[in-house]
Amino acid sequence: MFNLRMLKLSDLLLWIASGALIVISLFAIFSSSYSLLVKVHLDPFLYVKRQLISFLIGSVGLAIFAYLDYKRLKRLSIFFYLGMLTLLALITFGGGRGASAQRWLAVGGFSFQPSELAKIVIVICLAAFFSAKNKVETLTDAVALLALVGIPFLLIFKQPDLGTALVFIFILIGMLTISGSSSRLLILLTTPMISVMLRPFLFMWFFYLLLIVLALFLSRSSLWDWFLILGLNIGVGIAMPYIWDMLKTYQQQRILTFLNPGADPYGAGYHSLQSQIAIGSGGVFGKGFLHGSQTQLNFIPEQHSDFIFSAIGEEFGFIGTSLVLGLFALFIWRAMEIAKGASDYFGSLLAYGIAVMTAFHVFANVGMTLGLLPVVGMPLPFVSYGGSSLIMNMISIGILQSISMRRQKLIF
């Protein structure tokens, strides 16, 4: 049950952080799309208006999930999961195409990305799974957990949407760590990922395998651990050429460009290099609102979405980007504090999961715009243009506030 007095228990700093990010978003979206829209004789406020509509829809979602006792989400998790799989399957057979990927589902005149909503659904489902199991220790539990995440992961990877698929992996690893589950299972999940990154460099990969052998020997691991951990890492290394062939050409090019951005400065490396130029040219105080040369001359395509951080860096400089990162730090900190104060284990896992999801989004997006990570099409939460992403993040706020407002009983 919801009472207006419960609002006193909501987290004020969380409201401030998310609200400030949304306001910054509207200014950044307007600035990064203004010259392009004027050039093609469209309303310069077109994207801002669309984002405001998404904000209103997201506000309804926020209110619903704040009103709803978060404990009910545990019972509803199976229905959320089945609904998510249904929508992702529909995308595979009848979704709309955009930017070489099949990610959009149109309903009447409204289109959205089910993969964005799938992120918060997987957080809810993992929180329900871990709270029911308390700790994941057995191989049966591990297989069930991998199936829970693996099915939507494969459906999203097939779209293809590598960025969102990676979010699922990091949410899983983060929540697995927080839940205090078997360290052996965590090693099983993380070491193959390192093998994937090192496999292109054969000498480093062989050296890494030797380190695993040494660690298994010194820890006196069982024969079963030797078979699982070492076998899985070797298997991933052998399968890498086949996994590479499964990637789309543009995804392969993005990874190669990340390793050597200067190899194709006018092709696959163009976004990354222009983004770095924009952020670097902003200096300490920036060039001023609507005065960024890279931004206003549209050197970076679709800058109002995935590369909006570069527009903020160019026009508001180090001060502006520090403010944005500070607001994200505040948001993540408050989410973790809500997790610590939650009245039950499920609520704690739920809040921690949202904190992990948001932190990875910020890390991946900012790293991408700075050229420190490959370009994977990852939106900056609350800031990037995109209705589905904004609605998903506002639902996350509603869930966090629901946990915060129910951390203790009201005294009348």
Task: Describe this structure as you would to a colleague.
- InterPro entries: Cell_cycle_FtsW-rel_CS (IPR018365), FtsW/RodA (IPR001182), RodA/MrdB (IPR011923).
- The chain crosses the membrane at residues 12-31, 52-70, 76-95, 138-157, 164-189, 201-219, 226-244, 316-333, 345-363, 383-403.
- It is an enzyme of class 2 (transferase).
- Its EC number is 2.4.99.28.
- Keywords: Cell membrane, Cell shape, Cell wall biogenesis/degradation, Glycosyltransferase, Membrane, Peptidoglycan synthesis, Transferase, Transmembrane, Transmembrane helix.
- The chain has 412 residues and is mainly alpha-helical.
- It has one domain (4-405).
- Helices cover 71% and strands 3% of the residues.
- The chain has 15 helices and three strands.
- It has helices at 12-39, 46-67, 71-94, 114-133, 139-157, 162-178, 183-198, 202-218, 223-246, 249-259, 270-281, 293-296, 308-341, 345-369, 387-405, and strands at 96-98, 101-107, 110-112.
- The chain has a three-stranded antiparallel beta sheet with strand order 1-2-3.
- The longest helix has 34 residues, at 308-341.
- The radius of gyration is 22 Å and the shape is globular.
Give the topology, please:
Elements: H1 12-39, H2 46-67, H3 71-94, E1 96-98, E2 101-107, E3 110-112, H4 114-133, H5 139-157, H6 162-178, H7 183-198, H8 202-218, H9 223-246, H10 249-259, H11 270-281, H12 293-296, H13 308-341, H14 345-369, H15 387-405
Antiparallel strand pairs: 1-2, 2-3
Helix pairs in contact: 1-2, 1-13, 2-15, 3-4, 3-5, 4-5, 4-6, 4-14, 4-15, 5-6, 6-14, 7-9, 8-9, 11-13, 13-14, 13-15, 14-15
